[in-house]
Write a structure and sequence with these properties.
CATH class of the largest domain: Mainly Beta
CATH architecture of the largest domain: Roll
Order of helices and strands: HHEEEEEEEEEEEEEE
Largest sheet: 5 strands, antiparallel
Mean pLDDT: 85
Low-confidence stretches: 3-9, 30-41
Distance between the termini: 65 Å
Helix content: 10-25%
Strand order of the largest sheet: 6-5-4-1-7
Shape: flat
CATH superfamily of the largest domain: SH3 Domains
Strand content: 35-45%
Number of strands: 14
CATH topology of the largest domain: SH3 type barrels
Structural class: alpha+beta
Radius of gyration: 25 Å
Length: 169
């Protein structure tokens, strides 16, 4: 029997990781976990208010304290989904709860810069189609390469805006 064990290939033998090897592997494992978390964070889920207005509460209940009323198309990041309630984050980072029935699938972005130049092409040197003031909400049509978003204004005017100038994309 002893000779049969010695004949087994190295890959079939049980091995233990020494404390020194574990110390060498741990930073790599932590880095890999951070990269996975970062990728998940970049794939955020955004929704916009679909009714004329929605009340944001401090807890998932109509008996909770109302915090603010937000208007139609206001973009919100989904943090937690419950049955009838959704915990959301707004462009300021504030957390609140909203009834799920007030949120739609339409993607909207809010201009967070004092003014955002919407261009006819996704290029810094392209002609400016229009300028959107801070706080203006635009429909997100598509995510374009190179840090650009294709957007459309409520009046129908479209173009491309830099992701750094808006929130919700």
């Amino acid at each position: 029997m002893r000779s049969a064990r010695r004949a087994l290939p190295q890959s079939n033998r049980k091995s233990r990781i020494s404390p020194a090897e574990l110390r060498r592997v741990r930073p790599v494992a932590l880095l890999a976990a951070a990269l996975v978390w970062s990728a998940a964070a970049q794939a955020a889920d955004y929704r916009a208010v679909q009714d004329n207005a929605a009340v944001l509460y401090d807890a998932p209940s109509r008996e909770a304290r109302p915090l603010v009323v937000v208007s139609k198309h206001y973009p919100l990041e989904v943090i937690v989904n419950l049955d009838a309630w959704v915990k959301v984050r707004d462009h300021t980072g504030a957390l609140a709860w909203v009834e799920r029935k007030f949120l739609g699938d339409r993607r909207m972005v809010m201009v967070t810069a004092p003014s955002a130049e919407v261009r006819v092409k996704p290029e810094d040197g392209a002609a400016i189609a229009y300028a959107a003031a801070g706080g203006v909400v635009l429909e997100l049509v598509e995510i374009a390469p190179g840090g650009w978003l294709r957007v459309r204004h409520a009046d129908g005017a479209g173009g491309y805006v830099r992701t750094a100038q808006v929130w919700g994309g």
